[in-house]
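Per reviewer request, we include the raw input and output of the structure prediction for the construct analysed in the revised manuscript.
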Amino acid sequence: MVLKKPVLKTQSLIKYRDVSLTHKINPRLKHSYIQINEYGEVILKTPKVSKRFLLKLLEEKYPWIKRTLQKNTKQKPLLSQEIELFGEILKIQEIPEINKILNNIKIKNEQNIQKGYDKFYLKKSKEYILPKIEFYTQKMQLFPKEIKFRKMKRKWGSCRNDGVITYNTNLLKKSPDFIEEVIVHELAHLQHFNHSKAFYELIEKTLSL
């Protein structure tokens, strides 16, 4: 059995004039290709080539790249101009924190932009929710073993029987009243690990005081 030598592929971020490109080198390629995906990411695929060849190629293709990027921007903006926060729809420009995160993304594709939003909601969740948890733990005299935050699809929060509570970072999209209800809901599970009448009475009593 003859073992084939693995092909060494590399990838790097390069910049030509005002355009950032993802350069993928594959020695098996016979030709060079430039493509722009639906998210506006410019991808350059080449075999191993010289820097001189690369510069010549980019110089030739630069007008096409610019035209295509401009066309894609008009058809479908990659970055949303709005964001959900505390039950409201706000302009991205009004929130310096999210602006800073998004501007620091080197390759602005859908996946990286979503990670940027997730990073923002995680940071804001800790800043906003943790002090409220501290307030309600003292008020209810119920103390979780650990507090976690993560993005979840089907739950706003969860409480394990070992006292670990997890809150959905997407809670920050909801109104402050709703957020507080979820905080108290999960803390109440530390006393009533069910959805009994006593459980809901504890929630109602805590929120009404």
